[in-house]
Design brief:
Blueprint: E1 18-22, E2 34-38, E3 44-49, H1 57-68, E4 73-80, H2 86-104, E5 111-118, H3 125-137, H4 143-152, E6 161-169, E7 172-181, E8 194-199, H5 205-217, E9 234-239, H6 250-273, E10 281-289, H7 292-304, H8 306-313, H9 320-327, E11 340-343, E12 346-350, E13 353-354, H10 360-367, E14 371-377, E15 383-390, H11 394-401
Parallel strand pairs: 4-5, 8-9, 10-14
Antiparallel strand pairs: 1-2, 2-4, 3-9, 6-7, 7-8, 10-15, 11-12, 11-14, 12-13
Length: 405
């Protein structure tokens, strides 16, 4: 059961961004599993990909096409990751791009392919090719297409992840929509899932890339569910340029960057809230660090700790597990007497030990909450960082044990 999430409504359209989805039968029966997104002839695209050495075939092809072409099409399938498939997988990924190019009358390098699903299964290119005319001829700017596409890319997700923003710049109004999928295999290593954003801003690819990297730092690179990064992770933003509005000055850039980060953060935290088997949404805030990397290391160690996550699931105020995680995070010369921990505003630890006014019933109450904020002050500097995670439940094991069944 996702924590604090509801099914979204269809967002407003983004001028110049067209989408369609269809049922290709790649793995699932009776549901859409193929999405086509078009940014138009003047589109610019920025994308971040997994840093895994074991990148899936579509990731390798997308990176190659982006480096040597001017992409406008995103072709996305669910149900088969096309990872661990060797040369046949690469041929299938390239073949899907070529098939769309023949249909649209363009260059295969204009297509970026993306896949999610089971690793190691041969990719059924024939099924994708058979469904291509349906998605190509069904392309529309209508906001309902965003909702259909967001549902089509889901795998173990239980809630559709879709968000929308509007920003007023000096030259006019710009729209932005975003969709994401992800529930397990979630951990920072670029981005941690598949996410696709569309805007009608007119912007160069290099500028869009810089903004997307900035936005991902505090959003998609600040989440963890289970510590496993996928072979297929990607975060992509397509700008159609249809509005004619550009970032004319520093104020425009700051305003757009803030809205982009807000959209990314909503989608990223929705992934954690829908973490496989999650019953609690947890924010880990670390302050008082000597440098940011130190704060990030402590926050990630706590957020990723199976002992902390299982205690949270059990609503067991076993706060010593948090201290243990801080202690093993590798902070050099950490003075434990300077560490303080608060959970949902309740003082848990002071001076490296139990806070004088702490009572077990206070801990019980905060550990039982559906949304929990763990605040850790290292007492050694001014740097800070934040990570988002969830608890570990019996359901997580069941979902992953039965995923291929």
């Amino acid at each position: 059961m996702a924590v604090g999430l509801q099914e979204p409504e269809a967002p407003p359209a983004v001028p110049g961004i067209r989408l369609a989805s269809a049922a290709a039968g790649i793995r699932y029966a009776g549901r859409d599993d193929l999405v086509l997104m078009d940014g138009g002839e003047d589109a610019t695209v920025a994308a971040l990909y997994t840093n895994s050495a074991f990148r899936a075939a579509p990731v390798l092809v997308a990176q190659d096409h982006q480096a040597r072409g001017r992409p406008r099409w995103l072709l996305i399938n669910a149900g088969n990751a096309n990872a661990g498939t060797g040369e046949p997988g690469l041929e299938a990924a390239r073949g899907s791009c070529a098939a769309l190019a023949r249909l649209a009358g363009g260059d295969p390098a204009e297509v970026l392919p993306f896949s999610t699903g089971v690793i190691g299964e041969p990719f059924p290119l024939d099924r994708l090719e058979a469904a291509l005319p349906t998605v190509y001829h069904g392309l529309t700017e209508d906001g309902a297409a965003w909702l259909g596409a967001a549902r089509a890319i889901m795998t173990t997700d239980t809630v559709t992840k879709l968000a929308s923003r509007t920003v007023v710049l000096s030259g006019g109004t710009v729209r932005m929509n975003g969709m994401a999928k992800g529930s397990g295999m979630i951990h920072p290593d670029m981005a941690t899932m598949l996410a696709f954003l569309g805007t009608d801003l007119q912007i160069d690819a290099a500028d869009l890339d810089a903004l997307l990297r900035e936005a991902s730092r505090e959003s998609f690179n600040a989440i963890t569910v289970d510590g496993d990064t996928s072979t297929n992770d990607a975060l992509v933003c397509v700008a159609s340029g249809t509005s004619g509005v550009r970032l004319a000055n520093d104020d425009d850039r700051a305003a757009f960057a803030g809205v982009l980060e807000s959209l990314c953060l909503e989608l990223a935290t929705a992934i954690v809230r829908d973490g496989e088997g999650a019953t609690k949404f947890v924010t880990v805030e670390v302050s008082g660090a000597a440098e940011r990397s130190e704060a990030e290391r402590v926050a990630e160690t706590v957020a990723l700790s199976p002992l902390v996550k299982t205690a949270l699931y059990a609503s067991d105020p076993n706060w010593g597990r948090i201290l243990a995680a801080v202690g093993r995070a590798g902070v050099p010369d950490l003075a434990i007497e300077g560490v303080a921990v608060d959970i949902n505003g309740v003082a848990i630890v002071r001076g490296g030990g139990r806070a004088p006014d702490y009572r077990e019933e206070y801990g019980q109450a905060v550990f039982a909450a559906a949304e929990i904020t763990i605040v850790i002050d290292l007492g050694r500097g001014a740097a800070r960082a934040r990570k988002y995670t969830c608890d570990f439940s019996h359901e997580y094991v069941r979902i992953n044990a039965e995923y291929r069944s």
